[in-house]
């Protein structure tokens, strides 16, 4: 007997299907991560995930997924594919949750939604 998928949290439809690592509702086009993914996370600990859903940890190496303008500098841009080594996870300003040091730019904070674990 196949395992039943959860109801859509948006419209409560029971027609949800899997698409890669997400669940999708054909009725309202809502996409969400399955509950099973959250079940293997430790209780009470903050979990930071990269843009593709991989859990990040202190000391990881990540690469930047899109060009980023650096505030406070005239025309400096962090290019796609720039590798950032030895990151540190923090509770930063806004949704910036990675503290790092990038060669040529110095110390800065990044959003986990613009990086991918290498």
Automatic annotation (TrEMBL):
UniProt-listed InterPro entries: YjdM, YjdM_C, YjdM_N
Span of domain Protein YjdM N-terminal: 4-33
The Protein YjdM C-terminal domain, residue ranges: 48-118
A UniProt-annotated Pfam family: YjdM
Family the entry assigns: Belongs to the YjdM family.
Protein name listed in UniProt: Protein PhnA
């Amino acid at each position: 007997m196949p395992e039943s998928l959860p109801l859509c949290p948006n419209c409560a439809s029971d027609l949800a299907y899997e698409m890669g690592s997400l669940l999708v509702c054909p009725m309202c086009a809502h996409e969400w991560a399955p509950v099973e993914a959250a079940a293997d996370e430790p209780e009470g600990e903050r979990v930071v995930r990269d843009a593709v859903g991989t859990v990040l940890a202190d000391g990881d190496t990540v690469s930047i997924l899109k060009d980023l303008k650096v505030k406070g500098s005239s025309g400096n841009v962090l290019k796609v594919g720039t590798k950032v080594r030895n990151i540190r996870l923090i509770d930063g300003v806004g949704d910036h949750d990675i503290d790092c040091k990038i060669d040529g730019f110095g110390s800065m904070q990044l959003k986990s939604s613009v990086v991918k674990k290498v």
